[in-house]
Amino acid sequence: MSAQEVAARVRAGQTNRTTRSTSRSLTAILRSNVFTLFNLILAVAVTLVLLTGRWPDAVFGFVVVINAAIGIVTEYRAKRTLDRLSILTAPSARVVRDGAEQQVALDDVVQGDVLLVGTGDQVPADAQVLEVTGLEVDESMLTGESRPVHKAVGDEVLSGSTVVAGAAVCRVVRVGEEGYAQRITSEAKKFSVVRSELREGVNKILKVVSFGIVPISLLLFWSQLNYTGGVRASIADGTWRDGVVAAVAGVVGMIPEGLVLLTSLNFAIAATLLARQKVLVQELPAVEILARVDVLCLDKTGTLTDGHVALTALRPLAPVEGAREALAALAADPDGNATSRVLAEGLADTPPAAVTGSVPFSSARKWSAVLTGAGAFVLGAPEILLAGRTDGPATTALAEVGEAAGTGARVVLLAHAPRGLPTAEAPLPPDLAPALLAVLGERVRPDAAQTLEYFRRQGTRAKVISGDNPVTVAAIATSVGLHGEGVRVEGFDARELPTDPDELAVVVAAHDVYGRVTPEQKRAIVHALQSRGHVVGMTGDGVNDALALKDADLGIAMGNGAPATKAVARVVLVDGRFATLPGVLGQGRRVMANMERVASLFLAKTTYAAILAVSVVLLVWPYPFLPRHMTLAGSLTIGIPAFFLALPPNDRRYLAGFLRRVLSFAVPAGVVIGAVILAVYGYLRPLVGTDDARSAATLVLVGVSLWIVGIQARPLNGWKVALVAALAACAGLAVAIPWVRDFFALQVPTAQEAVVITVGVLVGWVAIEAVYRLLTPLLAGRPAPVRSAADILTSR
């Protein structure tokens, strides 16, 4: 192609350049994390408090900033990863232009270019073969087929595939967005947000709360103005500020703002801990998903195996002197093909024999030969070397070949040639003596069997989905004990899979191993499992896995896989170790189990805040707390303990119904707290005044809520007891230290107030313990917990 023709194609847009941006712009990320209902409510509340000039009551506003920052940073990181998505990793391509070979950037390849590809090259664009010299192409990143594919003149080579042997001259037929690899990439690059049960549960609560916030806050503000003498009087003497602050205190109390923040923080901590295990979490909520996965789809190549073909067995058929050394000599041929290189790796400890003559390998002949001091030896396909023979040695050899091939392995035969070195032109002699069988197979990851056994014990069903031969896939699945050690697994040919979604779901439920699966079928299998209510995890390393990984509930990519696969996966195993998955599962379970534990603290607060708001409106009382009181109580009984209780390991298996279990305790406990606070506040306010009554109500709130902390910390151990004691001590110091007491508008209780506070706290403890032991199990649909004192005070 001439320079003028290239320029014409560039002007026509027929270049290999592709769009490398995601559908999520930075503006969209900022908008989705800043302009939320949660942030709007708190921002309005902060603004109103600041307008009153009482900035200590606005410290809760930091939650908005921190939570938005975590979301923005996380999603921007995912955007940058997706923007860097590129299947084609080769830095340049070789083309023939103006009669000479040139190196050009991948983007500068144009339709009609003549490409030169050789061993180790990655094909930059879909092309048709014009001339070929023993070309073998690895398309496993695209199709899942691990064996190299021989290409002849007229065949197509696909963008993203790699040349593993031979060379070819090709003409580009499709470029850019039209290329096979790019079509998969464009689907994979579409942004999607991971589904999180924790976030969905919190969002449901926020939606319910949001319906009541506006009317309750307006009614609360109106009632506070009426209490201080009416609207006109409040505006005249400035007491409207008290009404605003009280209304904000009621609104902030109803919003579980700390739960939103802690969820994000807990995800971030889990991601940091996983990073130390060389696991990259690309979307924070993904750490919870593996705890919920009940079906794990595994790609064979690169997941159960490491993606490399290796010499797995060398079987002697007859005692022929010098056979192993001759095989090493054949493997050491510098012009050999992919098979010879695999043999060379497997025979690295065998010194090759000195070669005095040879016949090079030809894909047409399917054999090669060498002459050594021990005689002549021929290496090739068994059915070629022993074609038409029925004698004993040939029959025995072919039987072993069939047995090995039944495992999905590739087999080559080394035979001794007693008549000397055969010639390339003449037929092979009929008396070749079988000497050695070389069995070639993919290297199974040493950690695969142990990891699969772990998932089997955990009740997670594993399915192997591969583009390779079903027999090969089944053999690998059997070798790693997919259904248990020694249990044979049968493979299902995906070419027989139905296209109807309902019929496909039936087949997928019945079989666990699939071969000859196309990228579209992998995706369909994931959808079929999801249609039956399964939470699906998908692992893989090739471009052929990208679509399925993207649509699975949790996509897990191997670190040595294709960039497209790593970019769309939620989790990337950076070191490619399959054995890392149990650790990821552990983090997911820790997040789910511990967040369920601490969510009760936040939602109990939402419940009692709503009760207090409605009650003071009906009773026309001043609100029992200032926002700073809620900040103090929330920090000591919710924020700080929730952070520590969310960190310890927790291997409890995932159970569906997170929100129901949390609410079954939080709502009754919140009702108890609200009732106790109203009783104490209503009794003391006429006797000691609003300020002292508010201070007493704050101490009662802290005291009763710490019992909830103790319940959620069970089984108790040394550090948990120390945590609760430290929180109680901090509450005491907040009253004892003058400047802290003044900042939080607290009062030192009188003897009378101390008695009332103590009675209120004790009544709250008894009532909440009764709720926990008797009422909550009934609401949650589980047996009541039976615990002795020793059970409560000791850890499992």
UniProtKB/TrEMBL annotation:
**What's the protein's topology in the membrane?**
Multi-pass membrane protein
Q: Where does this chain mainly localize?
A: membrane
* Residue ranges occupied by any P-type ATPase A domain in the UniProt entry: 88-188
Say which domain of life the source belongs to: Bacteria
| Compartmental location | Cell membrane
InterPro entries on file:
ATPase_P-typ_cyto_dom_N (IPR023299), ATPase_P-typ_P_site (IPR018303), ATPase_P-typ_TM_dom_sf (IPR023298), ATPase_P-typ_transduc_dom_A_sf (IPR008250), ATPase_P-type_domA (IPR059000), HAD-like_sf (IPR036412), HAD_sf (IPR023214), P_typ_ATPase (IPR001757)
Keyword list (alphabetical) reads: Membrane, Translocase, Transmembrane, Transmembrane helix
Q: Which Gene3D superfamilies match?
A: Calcium-transporting ATPase, cytoplasmic domain N, Calcium-transporting ATPase, cytoplasmic transduction domain A, Calcium-transporting ATPase, transmembrane domain, HAD superfamily/HAD-like
Transmembrane parts of this sequence = 34-52, 58-76, 205-225, 245-274, 598-623, 629-650, 662-684, 696-714, 721-740, 755-775
Q: Which PANTHER family match?
A: CALCIUM-TRANSPORTING ATPASE (PTHR42861)
NCBIfam families, A to Z:
ATPase_P-type
Instruction: Give the protein name, as stated in the record.
Output: HAD-IC family P-type ATPase
* Phylogenetic classification of the source organism: Bacteria, Bacillati, Actinomycetota, Actinomycetes, Micrococcales
